[in-house]
Design goal:
heterodimer; A: 274 residues; alpha/beta; Chemotaxis Receptor Methyltransferase Cher, domain 1; Rossmann fold; seven-stranded mixed β-sheet; three-stranded antiparallel β-sheet; 11 helices; 43% helix; 20% strand; globular; B: alpha/beta; five-stranded parallel β-sheet; 5 helices; 18% strand; binds S-adenosylmethionine
Chain lengths: 274, 137
């Protein structure tokens, strides 16, 4: 029995919101059923009701699998092109100029999925900003889903993933083929670090970033969570640092202290000097 | 915009044709490298060539070399579309003058993104569902 009763669906909605802040619309019942099917098989559960019972018991392995299965991890290299053009033509040159004495650059991909976003920045820095190579570079990627964080860390991609927006020149320069898969070069992988992190929870005061990529994740949240995440992101930017959002996302009306700067076909948001 | 699809598989040619037509791109087809050269000589010169590697008569790499030996065709963008993905061979194709490389199998989204990388902007994006879409062989 792989259909969810209304009661089970309600429970799953609540569970997912509690763990991830993701809002699962009423029309998403089909999505729950299709995505939980592999989870049923993995945990030897007979039905969605079985799975819900395991969640109610607080079975940690099942909880992790359900969160992993219910996140949408769609991503690609240099996704949407324009934000990466903005990094290349404006954002990174600005930061290279302002950080020239500190010789540090910290970039955070805050919903990094399988790592394409952060590795795209790494390739951009390596290929176009050779002076930065000798700086202290912190390339940090985090995501709620443990499964995608492990994949990002491994840096192994299928041909289908490799095809999505990766320029051929980068493919031959930064990847090695191993069997049917492509592995990102050690020089890039060793510069990036990946961890799990839930954006909806309070953010520890660790360090500040020059660039935060917070792309295609706010769309899953309700207004209060959006506000919390944007406010926290602003607070974790160095003055003069940049926030990049997804194409359909805006901080307008949710947070102050971020100035929109339009660069080519996109808009980036710069933290005002305080 | 006009594209030439060069592949010995009729099924592959028709898949690519469908994707390109959907993007508002006109398509002509050739089943091997020699036929493709004749087609370009007869004109009009396409803006884009999608080239398979392993084909009878004249293979894709030979075709790229031939196309790039004509200065008057140099504006033509060439994208390899092939299962061939040995590192060394990809490098050879790029050095011979291919501009992009798409590995089979691919999705329609990947074609659109690659055309974007080539600076070819398309009329409309194909309708794709982010949960799995169609994977083309
Ligand atoms: C659609 S992907 C976006 C990936 C990448 N930023 C991009 O634009 O291509 C959304 C990612 O957000 C993650 N995510 C969802 N809720 C989250 C949360 N509360 N905290 C951290 N990451 C979350 C998902 O696991 C998923 O990998």
């Amino acid at each position: 029995m792989t259909t969810a009763t209304t009661e089970d669906f309600r429970f799953l909605q609540g569970f997912l919101h509690d763990r991830s802040a993701i809002v699962l619309g009423e029309d998403k019942q089909y999505l729950v059923e299709s995505r939980l099917l592999p989870v049923l098989q993995r945990h030897g559960a007979e039905s969605i009701a079985d799975l819900v019972r395991a969640l109610r018991r607080g079975d940690a392995a099942v909880e992790t699998s359900v969160v992993d299965a219910m996140t949408t991890n769609e991503t690609s290299w240099f996704r949407d092109a324009a934000p990466f053009e903005a990094l290349r033509t404006y954002v990174i040159p600005e930061l290279v100029a302002s950080n020239v004495t500190r010789r540090r650059l910290a970039v955070w991909s805050a919903a990094c999925s399988t790592g394409q976003e952060l590795y795209s920045v790494a390739m951009l820095l390596d290929s176009e900003f050779s002076d930065v190579a000798s700086w202290h570079l912190d390339l940090h990627g985090t995501d709620l889903s443990t499964a995608v964080v492990e994949r990002a860390r491994a840096g192994v991609f299928s041909p289908l993933e490799i095809n999505r927006g990766l320029p051929a020149a980068h493919l031959v320069r930064y990847f090695n083929r191993e069997g049917a898969r492509f592995v990102i070069s050690d020089s890039l992988r060793s510069r990036a670090r990946f961890q799990t992190f839930n954006l909806a929870r309070p953010w520890p005061q660790v360090q500040d970033y020059d660039i935060i990529l917070l792309r295609n994740v706010l769309i899953y949240f309700d207004v209060d969570t959006k506000r919390h995440v944007l406010e926290s992101a602003r607070a974790h930017l160095r003055p003069g640092g940049f926030l990049l959002l997804g194409t359909a996302e805006t901080p307008r009306g949710l947070v102050t202290g971020l100035r929109p700067v339009s660069v080519g076909a996109t808009t980036v948001f710069r933290r005002e000097e305080s | 915009m006009r594209a030439m699809v060069v592949d010995d598989s009729r099924a592959m040619r028709s898949l690519l044709r469908q994707i390109l037509l959907h993007l508002g791109i006109d398509v002509v087809e050739a089943a091997d490298g020699r036929a493709a050269v004749e087609m370009v000589e007869a004109g009009p010169v396409p803006d884009l060539a999608l080239v398979d590697w392993h084909m009878p008569v004249m293979d894709g790499l030979e075709l790229v070399v031939e196309l790039r030996s004509h200065r008057e065709w140099r504006h033509m963008m060439i994208m390899m579309v092939t299962t061939e993905s040995e590192h060394e061979n990809m490098v050879r194709a790029l050095l011979a003058g291919a501009n992009e490389y798409l590995i089979k199998p691919f999705t329609a989204d990947a074609v659109v993104e690659k055309l974007g990388l080539l600076g070819l902007h398309c009329a409309a994006a194909p309708s794709g569902d982010s949960y799995g879409g169609g994977i083309l062989p």
